[in-house]
Amino acid sequence: MRNDRIAPLALPRGSAGEGPKKRGVCAALTGETGYITRLRAPLYVAIILLAGACATQALPVANSGAAGPLAPPLKANPPLDLIVGPDGKLWFGEPFSNRIGRFSTAGVLEELPLPARCFVARLASGPDGRVWFTDPVGNRIGSITPDGSVALFVLPAPKSGPAGIALGADGNLWFTEIKTGRIGRVTPAGSISEFTLPDSGSRPAGIVSGADGDLWFTEERGARIGRITTQGRISEFTAPTPRSEPEEITAGPDGNLWFTEFKGKRIGRITTAGEIKEFPILDAPSVDRIASGPDGNLWVTAAGGKIFRVTLAGVVAGLKLPAGVRPAFITAGPDGNIWFTERAGIIVRMTPAGAIKEFSLARPDF
Predict the structure, then answer these.
(1) Residue 154, CB-side half-sphere exposure with 13 Å CA sphere
(2) Dihedral-angle region of residue 136 (phi above 0 means left; psi in -120 to 50 means alpha; beta otherwise)
(3) Mean pLDDT of 90-114
(4) What local confidence, expressed as pLDDT, does residue 366 receive?
(5) Domain-embedded: residue 124
(6) Model's pTM, two decimal places?
(7) What is the DSSP string of 228-243?
(8) In sequence order, which ranges of 113-270 are alpha helices (DSSP H)?
(9) How far apart are CA 135 and CA 278, in angstroms?
């Protein structure tokens, strides 16, 4: 386990931009599109290489530190996802260097090695003190303890594309299978069940536990929001804007579910009764991530280096960021601030008033 204090960066600073998702050859070969990574084509090539190697490598079901030395990190090492773990620290995936990272709000970085070619896409805090994750390249669900012990559980159907993951009210982890149109459930002991959606091509993506105790998820194709009870009963609700491609979803402080529409350039609000209302995000090429903030508002990232604060009434306000700052994954921190990732290997702390400080994940061995 590596432990470093992350050096803050001076602002402003330039970084690579983020455009709309790529649906070219790279995405087709991996079978995934923008929900999992939202990365540019060169990094999709890395996914392809991982997928080819992973298909021929047998991995143990559980691993307790036998992963070997840390792989040399890429200079462009984009963190994927960002959550608050059971230990109160911020956790993120480093899929291109076989690590999971975590750091304190004081900026102390720790890195935990994973088995070779384990691609961490999305994360969720478990009921057992572990952080759970999806691995779409290895077709697995994994978990890791704070001391680095890893367990991996292979899904029954090959190439199912595990994507979003969330803790359910029943104490199990629930996840989407974006390629096979299923919702999966895994117990802390690793027992997996799957539930098929009415449309197997609907591409379920984000998932979250709602105030009603059910799991709510987005369906990219068909522009639907789905609900599944912990007993496996499924309901679906169609968004007003066709082909809007709902992706991310979060539980709002008002008891409703809020979601992004990547192509619709909107965010939506759905009540637990299934009533949907949409709010346009102006001047955004696409709408990407969403999180409930510590200030009672929703926070949204969009392509082109944009971030928005949305009130529960749907009033949208854009925040001006320093030049070159490109928000990606976003979450509310345990310290009352907003935290988000950047594509260039940066973690950012932002106060609700908009003051920011960047922390670089770059290492001295570069």
Answers:
(1) 12
(2) alpha
(3) 92
(4) 32
(5) yes
(6) 0.83
(7) E-TT--EEEEE-SSTT
(8) none
(9) 32
Task: Establish if 365 belongs to a structural domain.
Answer: no
Between CA 131 and CA 13 the distance in angstroms is 32
Residues 6+ apart with CB under 8 A from 224: 202, 218, 236, 237, 238, 239, 246
Number of domains in the chain: 1
Backbone conformation region of residue 180, classed left if phi is above 0, alpha if psi is from -120 to 50, else beta: alpha
**Counting every residue, how long is the chain?**
366
pLDDT greater at residue 1 or residue 184 = 184
Q: What is the CATH number of the domain that holds 276?
A: 2.130.10.10
Q: Which three-class secondary structure state does DSSP give residue 250?
A: strand
- How many angstroms separate the CA atoms of 270 and 250, rounded? 11
Which residue in 87, 170, 101 sits closest to 130, CA to CA?
87
Q: pLDDT, tens digit, for every residue of 271-296?
A: 999 999 999 998 888 999 999 999 99
* Residue ranges making up the domain that contains 17: 2-360
pLDDT value of position 126: 97
Tell whether 93 is covered by a domain.
Answer: yes
Token pair of 337 as six digits: 């601030």
Task: Name the residue among 144, 113, 120, 118 with its Cα closest to residue 131.
Answer: 144
Q: Which helix (H) or strand (E) holds 209?
A: strand 204-209
Confidence (pLDDT) at 344? 83
DSSP 97: G
Q: At residue 290, what is the residue type?
A: I
Assess if residue 366 is contained within a domain: no
Could you read off the pLDDT of 147-164 as tens digits, one per residue?
Answer: 999 999 999 999 999 999
Cis geometry, peptide bond prior to residue 73 (ω within 30 degrees of 0): no
